[in-house]
């Protein structure tokens, strides 16, 4: 028996194992997975499924497993499985298995307690699901699934039944299937009929579509069931609608609100809650893949080959290379998923508490003891450079992750995919997005890598051709779309009117159309449309997070579904058209091009304009043309920007402006000229964005309009950046109206005030991520400031103070705008105008004064190095002061730090005056005449009235003094001193807190607090205040030394001693050595001469005896008489021995106490001579004490010698040497050092004051350099080289995002990080350079005039010389002819007859 059970148990386990294997295969094939489906076809064929399921002894669990496998592997597939649709297998299952099982369920007894639950669940869920899926499949419609050979039908149904159908049909099986499904629906309970009714509905639709004849009785039953279902649903919806209407009516008093608002609100809340709950979990689950890609070697055994390859980056490299293979094989989805994963490896996200818990759980499954490994790995990593943020997942900075992926081939992958994925838009977009992630924050290393890759491999032509083509396609698409939209505006309005009229007619005729109790008017349609849009977006986000699949351009399945919302949804879509695919792709493209030039990469800026190839693609010009087109310039709508700019394309326009700005900044003069001199309306479009109101977008989304104006102003500033000429500025001025420009600036300033009023009225705050109107107005004001240099009218308007509206706005912007001059690397000077950062207003005036007066000059007489070193300290003070403002009490105390210091000094003086005048204190009050007392009260009241009417410091001090006098005369000096001492301790505590608050001591470490000298001084001050109040009032005297700390003159006196303290110490040491030598000589040779007079005092015993007698008599008189009256003891009476001893003891005690206070008991009886050099130590002490204090040296106290004594001459030499060496030379050396040091300090102070008064703090130029110049010295140090403006610019480059830097800001930021001060102007100023340049131009002009005059003179001389030369040549020819004629005449006379005169004349004329 046991053996039978064992065998049965083994068979049961085998069956369970078999079922689980089939279920596993079914789960593997679930979804769209064509490769797994094809692989599973070879494991379980259709013949196997049919033979197992149709077996009469097959159990329900096996059937369910195989049916699920059949559904996922053969029917619900990605591609068509022709075998299931063109063969008899599925119909065999219908005939031999499905109909049998459904018949068993339909004929089951009505007693549900004995029903076969497994069979019912199998039929209701698995069978109904596979039948519905099979007939709903699109491949089912394409194949002849309903057709069947007549023989097969005849075998099953018999000859008579089949004659009513066609010769080749499967319709009998289909009809029988529908009949059995209907029977099942009648046999199951209501909540189990959902799948069954869906199956009946599907079969009915298939029968109607294929014209299948259904028996009339069966058709009537199906129709009746459908009607009952619709009635029940309608009745339920009506009841629910009534309840919702009653709830809405009870909760609100607005009768116009219908129950659809409740539906919409509840639905939105449900969707929001679901998204908020699921989004972090889905994102956290998907992020685990990125963690695995960061450390794939942990998946393998340590030191294995796979682990080593993965640790060296082999896995990521192969994954990147495989992405190109996927593109070639046209596996778009997997390629996109790989690109998304690579992009996720660069970004770092927050997942919340639940998301982090889920991540830890999943990571523990993949990695053993993940948290320990991760912590150990993080501890071994090197700390990043200052300012970089370490990503949580990778343990590296963003730049390190970007470079790591780029070195493994990600950068090359981006280039290749961009060129190869022109036909696949989704892959192109993902490739560009990956490039954006790699270049985020302007990674210069990756920029250089892409630049070298494009130049070396000659891929730039094809690479830039893709972007050029995309831009041209977008431009063409915009032209078509904008033309249609603008032409449809009038037609649409007329259509709306016609529709409204038709609707009114229908309403009058038929009343309002109702559906399920809801009034479907236009308002409801719009709200339902908005609800559908929000819901679609929410589901799209959740689905994208779950599956990682992308809907094309963000279009969700709900948006592609049937017309939910009906006509209203379509109308809403028509009113707010979204950008088409060709236009929307431009936003990531432009962002990618912007990041290529980020941080002012001049090589790539020029490369985008000119690739030096056979076919050049000027992306700078094409980007400008794209901006021109998207803003409507192609249709002539320069003044109608509101028709072209809407909520859908404003982000694209902003991105275009940002990209054009990055093209120009740096500066790149060629790109600036390309934009400014382009033949399109680009500049007009940019200026129109600033000047126009951009309605109707401004009425609903003013934040978008402000961002647009801000980016446009930045672009115009970038076009003029770092240019010495005025060509671009003049072109900008030609494209705008300066009066309108100032109106925009002032309106934005006052718009901020109106927004503030609305904020207090509505209680709503503005979005912190956007820009404020005043900030945008400030940027446009800086644009005006830069343009005013080239336009006199604009300069006059900026300085005009007529209109109050303009004056207030311009004064505000002027006070918050700074300008400095910097020196570029090529030693040219450039002026920078920038807004003063808000944090700079927290710099205290005390710090400004201290830095201004204490900045030290270096070897080159410049204060800039010391000032630059203090900039960081002042910046930290600003940050602390800003933080301090959030603490109201501490901020209030710190604001009056100087007041507390003055009060403390006054109290210290008053307290010491009271101590000096009234110590020791007496119990009696000071005697004051009644008239004086009354006069004091009158003066006190008068002083109080004056302080109330004229609250000045002098009157307040007088009132305080009178109050103190009144307290002294009324209560005595001791209570007044206690009151002032308590106030002193309290005010000093407040003063100490204010000092710590101003200096940020609370945020410093304990070591910094202890080593702070100023803090230690004030703590000691507080200690002496407490000691004076609690121990003795003489401690208050130490507080008077505060005058040394407060007064710079006394500090200089102290510095005169401490500055050259080492010299003084060495000189004093020399004096001690000399005193020691003289002491030895005196002790050796003149020991007997060290005699000093000491007074000798003896006791006056007579006085002592007299005092004792008086005390005894007083004691007897005052103490014993009362005792005698009482009868206890008297003189002469018999007293006991104890009483007598007690009496004697009391008398002695009182006498001794009285004698202790007597100071006249010692009397001086004469002087006594004492040897003060009994030992060498005493000799040294005497020489120091008397020798240095005596005017003539040690000789003044020594006994004089007679001239006849042997030691007379040595004694004279000894005295003279001590006097000259010690008294005259050494002591005067010490005094001279102190006096000279004090004189030097005074001279330095005067020199420093002279330098501060007559020299520029920044450049060091003297006041005389600006004499007879266009700019005087005061304007120079106030506007051109204001030292605090340089501090503000230092703060500007530290608080601003480096990716938002302009060219000069980027240049200065680089030098600031390197602590290079070459950007500060040294002995140079642009105003002087301009003057010198003008003088040189005048000299050149004069020289040019002189050269022109000289040239004209030379030309005249040349012409005269030419004429003279011609005349001389003619004369020479004439002479030569005469000589020839004379020679000829002589020859003729000799050998021929002489010629006549006429012959000679003819010869001459011929020659």
List its traits.
single chain, mainly alpha, two-stranded antiparallel sheet, two-stranded antiparallel ribbon, 62 helices
Structure commentary:
The protein is mainly α. The chain is 71% helix and 3% strand. It is built from 62 helices and six strands. The longest helix has 66 residues, at 1326-1391. The relative contact order is 0.03. It is found in: Membrane. This is Inositol 1,4,5-trisphosphate receptor. Keywords: Membrane, Receptor, Transmembrane, Transmembrane helix. Its main location: membrane.
How does the SSE layout of this entry go?
Blueprint: H1 2-28, H2 34-43, H3 46-53, H4 60-75, H5 82-86, H6 89-106, H7 117-136, H8 138-142, H9 150-157, H10 159-162, H11 171-187, H12 194-209, H13 216-251, H14 259-294, H15 305-311, H16 314-328, H17 332-346, H18 352-366, H19 370-380, H20 398-407, H21 410-420, H22 425-439, H23 444-456, H24 460-510, E1 514-515, E2 518-519, H25 522-547, H26 557-560, H27 567-575, H28 581-584, H29 586-596, H30 602-609, H31 619-630, H32 650-664, H33 669-676, H34 682-691, H35 697-700, H36 702-719, H37 727-734, H38 738-762, H39 773-788, H40 792-799, H41 804-815, E3 817-823, E4 829-835, H42 845-854, H43 864-884, H44 888-895, H45 897-918, H46 930-949, H47 953-971, H48 973-999, H49 1006-1010, H50 1013-1030, H51 1042-1046, H52 1048-1058, H53 1061-1085, E5 1091-1099, H54 1101-1126, H55 1137-1156, E6 1162-1171, H56 1176-1189, H57 1208-1254, H58 1273-1280, H59 1283-1295, H60 1303-1313, H61 1326-1391, H62 1397-1406
Antiparallel strand pairs: 1-2, 3-4, 5-6
Helix pairs in contact: 1-4, 3-4, 3-6, 4-7, 6-7, 6-11, 7-12, 11-12, 14-17, 14-18, 14-25, 16-17, 16-21, 17-22, 21-22, 22-29, 24-31, 25-27, 29-32, 31-32, 32-36, 34-36, 36-39, 38-39, 38-41, 39-40, 44-48, 45-48, 46-47, 47-48, 48-50, 52-57, 53-56, 53-57, 54-55
């Amino acid at each position: 028996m046991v053996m039978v059970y064992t065998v049965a148990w083994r068979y049961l386990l085998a069956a369970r194992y078999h079922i689980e294997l089939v279920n596993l295969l079914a789960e593997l094939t679930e979804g769209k997975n064509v490769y797994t489906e094809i692989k599973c076809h070879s494991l379980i064929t259709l013949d196997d499924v049919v033979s197992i399921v149709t077996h009469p002894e097959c159990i329900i669990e096996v059937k369910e497993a195989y049916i699920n496998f059949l559904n996922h592997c053969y029917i619900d597939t990605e591609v068509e499985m022709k075998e299931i649709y063109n063969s008899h297998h599925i119909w065999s299952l219908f005939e031999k298995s499905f109909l049998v099982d459904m018949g068993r369920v339909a004929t089951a007894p009505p007693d549900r307690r004995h029903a076969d639950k497994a069979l019912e669940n199998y039929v209701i869920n698995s069978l109904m699901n596979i039948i519905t899926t099979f007939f709903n499949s699109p491949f089912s419609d394409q194949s002849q699934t309903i057709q069947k050979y007549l023989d097969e039908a005849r075998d099953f149904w018999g000859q008579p039944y089949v004659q009513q159908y066609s010769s080749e049909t499967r319709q009998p099986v289909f009809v029988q299937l529908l009949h059995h499904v209907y029977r099942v629906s009648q046999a199951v309970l209501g909540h189990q009929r959902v799948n069954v009714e869906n199956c009946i509905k599907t079969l009915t639709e298939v029968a109607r579509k294929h014209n299948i004849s259904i028996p009339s009785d069966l058709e009537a039953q199906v129709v009746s069931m459908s009607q009952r279902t619709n009635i029940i649903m309608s009745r339920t919806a009506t009841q629910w609608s009534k309840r919702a209407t009653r709830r809405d009516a009870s909760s609100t008093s607005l009768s116009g609100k219908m129950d659809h608002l409740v539906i919409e609100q509840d639905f939105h809340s449900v969707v929001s809650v679901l998204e908020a709950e699921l989004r972090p979990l889905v994102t956290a689950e998907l992020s685990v893949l990125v963690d695995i890609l960061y450390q794939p070697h942990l998946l393998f055994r340590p030191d294995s080959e796979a682990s080593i390859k993965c640790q060296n980056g082999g896995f990521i490299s192969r994954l990147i290379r495989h992405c190109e293979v996927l593109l070639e094989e046209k596996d778009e989805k997997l390629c996109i998923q790989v690109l998304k994963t690579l992009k996720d490896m660069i970004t770092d996200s927050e997942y919340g508490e639940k998301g982090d818990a889920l991540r830890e759980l999943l990571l523990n499954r993949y990695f053993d003891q993940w948290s320990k490994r991760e912590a150990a790995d993080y501890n071994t990593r090197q700390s990043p450079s200052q300012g970089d943020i370490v990503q949580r997942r990778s343990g590296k900075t963003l730049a390190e992750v970007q470079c790591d992926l780029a070195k493994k081939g990600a950068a090359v992958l981006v280039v290749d995919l961009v060129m190869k994925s022109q036909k696949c838009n989704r892959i192109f977009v993902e490739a560009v997005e990956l490039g954006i992630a790699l270049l985020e924050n302007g990674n210069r290393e990756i920029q250089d890598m892409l630049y070298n890759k494009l130049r070396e491999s000659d891929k730039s032509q094809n690479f830039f051709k893709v972007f050029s083509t995309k831009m041209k396609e977008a431009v063409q698409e915009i032209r078509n779309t904008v033309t249609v939209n603008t032409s449809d505006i009038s037609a649409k309005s007329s259509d709306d009117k016609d529709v409204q009229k038709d609707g009114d007619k229908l309403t009058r005729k038929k009343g309002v159309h109702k559906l399920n109790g809801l009034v479907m008017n236009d308002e409801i349609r719009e709200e339902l449309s908005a609800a559908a849009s929000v819901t679609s977006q929410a589901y799209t986000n959740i689905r994208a997070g779950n599956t990682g699949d992308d809907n094309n351009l963000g279009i969700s399945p709900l948006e592609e579904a049937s017309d939910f919302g009906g006509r209203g949804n379509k109308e809403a879509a028509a009113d707010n058209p979204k950008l088409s695919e060709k236009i929307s792709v431009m936003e990531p493209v432009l962002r990618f091009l912007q990041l290529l030039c980020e941080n002012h990469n001049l090589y790539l800026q020029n490369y985008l304009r000119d690739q030096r190839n056979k076919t050049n693609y000027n992306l700078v010009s094409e980007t400008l043309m794209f901006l021109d087109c998207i803003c409507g310039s192609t249709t002539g709508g320069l003044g109608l920007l509101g028709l072209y700019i809407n909520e859908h394309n404003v982000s694209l326009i902003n991105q275009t402006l940002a990209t054009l700005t990055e093209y120009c900044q740096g500066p790149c003069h060629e790109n600036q000229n390309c934009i400014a001199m382009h033949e399109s309306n680009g500049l007009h479009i940019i200026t129109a964005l600033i000047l126009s109101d951009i309605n109707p977008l401004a009425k609903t989304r003013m934040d978008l309009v402000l961002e647009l104006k801000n980016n446009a102003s930045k672009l115009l500033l970038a076009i003029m950046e770092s240019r010495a000429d005025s060509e671009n500025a003049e072109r900008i001025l030609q494209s705008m109206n300066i009066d309108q420009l100032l109106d925009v600036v002032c309106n934005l300033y006052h718009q901020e005030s109106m927004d503030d009023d609305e904020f207090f009225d509505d209680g709503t705050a503005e979005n912190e991520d956007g820009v404020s109107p005043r900030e945008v107005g400030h940027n446009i004001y800086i644009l005006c400031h830069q343009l005013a240099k080239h336009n006199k009218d604009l300069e006059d308007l900026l300085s005009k103070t007529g209109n109050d509206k303009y004056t207030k706005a311009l004064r505000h912007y002027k006070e918050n705008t700074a300008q400095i001059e910097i020196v570029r690397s090529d030693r040219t000077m450039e002026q920078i105008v920038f807004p003063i950062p808000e944090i700079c207003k927290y710099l205290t005036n005390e710090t400004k004064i201290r830095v201004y007066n204490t900045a030290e000059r270096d070897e080159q007489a410049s204060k800039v190095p010391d000032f630059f070193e203090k900039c960081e300290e002042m910046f930290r003070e600003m940050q602390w002061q800003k933080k301090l403002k959030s603490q109201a009490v501490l901020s209030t105390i710190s604001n009056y730090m100087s007041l507390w210091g003055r009060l403390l000094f006054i109290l210290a003086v008053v307290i010491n005056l009271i101590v000096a005048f009234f110590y020791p204190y007496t119990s009696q009050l000071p005697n004051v005449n009644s008239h004086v007392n009354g006069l004091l009260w009158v003066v006190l009241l008068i002083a109080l009235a004056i302080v109330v009417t004229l609250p000045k410091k002098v009157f307040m001090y007088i009132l305080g003094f009178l109050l103190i006098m009144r307290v002294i005369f009324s209560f005595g000096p001791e209570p007044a001193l206690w009151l002032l001492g308590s106030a002193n301790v309290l005010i000093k505590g407040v003063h100490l807190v204010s000092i710590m608050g101003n200096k940020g001591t609370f945020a410093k470490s304990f070591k910094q607090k202890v080593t702070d000298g100023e803090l230690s001084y004030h703590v000691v001050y507080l200690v002496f205040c407490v000691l004076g109040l609690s121990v003795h009032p003489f401690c208050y005297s130490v507080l008077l030394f505060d005058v040394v700390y407060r007064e710079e003159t006394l500090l200089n006196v102290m510095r005169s001693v401490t500055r050259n303290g080492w010299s003084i110490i060495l000189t004093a040491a020399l004096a001690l050595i000399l005193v020691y030598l003289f002491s030895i000589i005196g002790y050796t040779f003149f020991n007997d001469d060290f005699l000093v007079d000491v007074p000798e005092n003896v006791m006056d015993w007579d006085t002592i005896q007299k005092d004792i007698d008086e005390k005894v008599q007083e004691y007897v008189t005052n103490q014993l008489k009362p005792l005698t009256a009482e009868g206890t003891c008297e003189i002469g009476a018999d007293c006991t021995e104890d009483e007598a001893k007690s009496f004697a003891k009391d008398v002695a005690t009182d006498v001794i106490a009285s004698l202790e206070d007597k100071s006249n008991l010692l009397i001086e009886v004469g002087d006594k001579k004492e040897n003060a050099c009994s030992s060498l130590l005493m000799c040294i002490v005497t020489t120091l004490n008397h020798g240095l204090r005596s005017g003539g040296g040690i000789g003044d106290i020594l006994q004089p010698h007679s001239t006849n004594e042997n030691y007379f001459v040595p004694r004279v030499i000894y005295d003279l040497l001590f006097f000259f060496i010690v008294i005259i030379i050494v002591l005067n050396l010490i005094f001279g050092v102190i006096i000279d040091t004090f004189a030097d300090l005074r001279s330095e102070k005067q020199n420093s004051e002279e330098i501060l008064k007559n020299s520029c703090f920044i450049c060091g130029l003297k006041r005389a350099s600006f004499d007879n110049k266009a700019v005087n010295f005061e304007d120079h140090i106030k506007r051109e080289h204001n030292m605090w403006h340089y501090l503000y610019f230092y703060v500007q480059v530290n608080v601003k995002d480096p990716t938002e830097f302009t060219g000069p800001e980027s240049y200065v930021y680089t030098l600031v990080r390197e602590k290079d001060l070459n950007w500060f102007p040294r002995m140079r100023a642009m105003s002087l350079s301009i003057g010198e340049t003008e003088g040189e131009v005048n000299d050149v002009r004069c020289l040019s005039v002189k050269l022109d005059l000289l040239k004209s003179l030379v030309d005249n001389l040349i012409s005269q010389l030419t004429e003279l030369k011609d005349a001389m040549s003619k004369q020479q020819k004439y002479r030569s002819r005469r000589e020839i004629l004379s020679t000829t005449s002589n020859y003729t006379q000799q050998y021929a007859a002489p010629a006549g005169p006429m012959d000679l004349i003819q010869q001459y004329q011929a020659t």
